[in-house]
Specification:
- The structure is a homodimer of 167-residue chains.
- The first copy, chain A, is an alpha+beta fold and 167 residues long.
- The first copy, chain A, is built from four helices and seven strands; from the N terminus they run E-H-H-E-E-E-H-E-H-E-E.
- In chain A, strands 1-2-3-4-5-7-6 form a seven-stranded mixed β-sheet.
- In chain A, strand 4, helix 3 and strand 5 form a beta-alpha-beta unit.
- At the A-B interface, strand 5, strand 6 and strand 7 of A face strand 5, strand 6 and strand 7 of B.
C-alpha cells in the first residue's frame, strides 16, 4: 500500500509545526549539523532563509518539511540543494520519500539540472538508502566531517543526482 | 628565491582594495560561482559575512585576500572553509600559496581539525596543483557543477586536508 501525502509552500503560520519537527530532529544529533539552536535561529536558517520551503501534509497535519535552494550562486546555481525533515511520529511511513519526489519535480520545473546534498551523515543508513533508491550517488566523502551525538566523528557524504536523466 | 608576504585581519578601510581584487576575479568567470555581483553584494558575501577575513600585503599594498570560516555549523564546525583571491597584477608570485599557508596556521590555532573547499573548478589547474602541493586531496567531484565563462559546464571538485597531520 502506498501512502499518499500532499505538499504545499510553507507560510509563517506553519512555523510552530515546523519547529515541532526541527527541534527533536536537531536534538537527535545524528543527521543535521545544527546544534543548540534557538527557535529564532532555526526559523532564520529554515523558514526565513533564502530558500523555497514546503510542508508535507498527512490528513491536514504537517508531517514533514523541506527546503529547496540553489546550492551555489551564479555559475553554480543550476545545481539545487534540498534538505528534508520528517516529524519523529511520522517516520517510516514514506513522508521523506514523498517529499524528495516532490522536490525533484519542483526542482525540474524550476529549471535546475541537478540536486546535491552537501552533508549526508554516513551512519544515517535509512537516508543513504533512500537517496540511492531515488537515483542519488555518492560523489564525495568528507572524512570525519560530522560529529555524531552517539558515534563521535563519522564521515559526511556528498550525494548528487542528475535531474535531466529519466527518473 | 622565496617572496615573503605578510598578512593581517582586514578592516573596513580595506574594502576598496579588496573590491579591486574581487571584481576582476569574479568577472573572469573561471574560478568563483559569484556572477554579476554589485560591490555591495560582494562586500556582504566577503568582508561582512560571518567569517574572518584577511589581506596579504606586498610592500604595504594589498595583493590578495582570504576568508576563513566554519564550513558547517555545530556538528560540522570542526572543518573550516577558506577562499582565496589574488590581485590579477600579483598572480604567479606566490601570494596564493602564502595566504593558504597562513590560513592553515590560523585554522590550526583556532582549533579546526580540517579544511575543506566546496567548489574548486576542475579546469583551474594552477589552483588544483597548488592545493595538491599543500596536502589537499580531491574527496569529491560534482559533474558539471560549474558553468565556466569559456568552457561551459565543467566539474567542480571538493578538496580537503586534515590539519592534524604534519604539514
Amino acid at each position: 500500500m502506498t501512502q499518499s501525502f500532499s505538499t504545499r509552500p510553507a507560510g509563517s503560520d506553519d512555523w510552530p509545526a515546523i519547529w515541532d519537527i526541527m527541534e527533536p530532529v536537531i536534538a537527535q544529533g545524528d543527521s543535521y549539523a545544527w546544534e543548540h539552536v534557538t527557535p529564532e535561529e532555526a526559523r532564520a536558517v529554515w523558514l526565513d532563509a533564502d530558500a523555497e520551503v514546503f510542508v508535507a501534509l498527512d490528513g491536514g497535519k504537517v508531517a514533514g518539511t523541506y527546503l529547496l535552494k540553489p546550492n551555489q550562486p551564479g555559475r553554480g546555481a543550476h545545481v539545487c540543494n534540498a534538505a528534508f525533515m520528517v516529524a519523529p511520529a511520522a517516520q517510516g511511513r514514506g513522508v521523506g520519500r514523498a517529499m524528495a519526489e516532490d522536490a525533484m519535480v519542483r526542482a525540474r520545473a524550476a529549471g535546475y539540472s541537478a540536486m546535491q546534498f552537501n552533508l549526508v551523515v554516513a551512519t544515517n543508513e535509512p537516508a543513504v538508502a533512500l537517496w540511492r533508491q531515488l537515483g542519488f550517488g555518492v560523489v564525495g566523502r568528507i572524512p570525519g566531517g560530522f560529529r555524531h551525538a552517539q558515534h563521535g566523528l563519522v564521515d559526511a557524504l556528498i550525494m548528487y543526482r542528475d535531474l535531466e536523466e529519466s527518473p
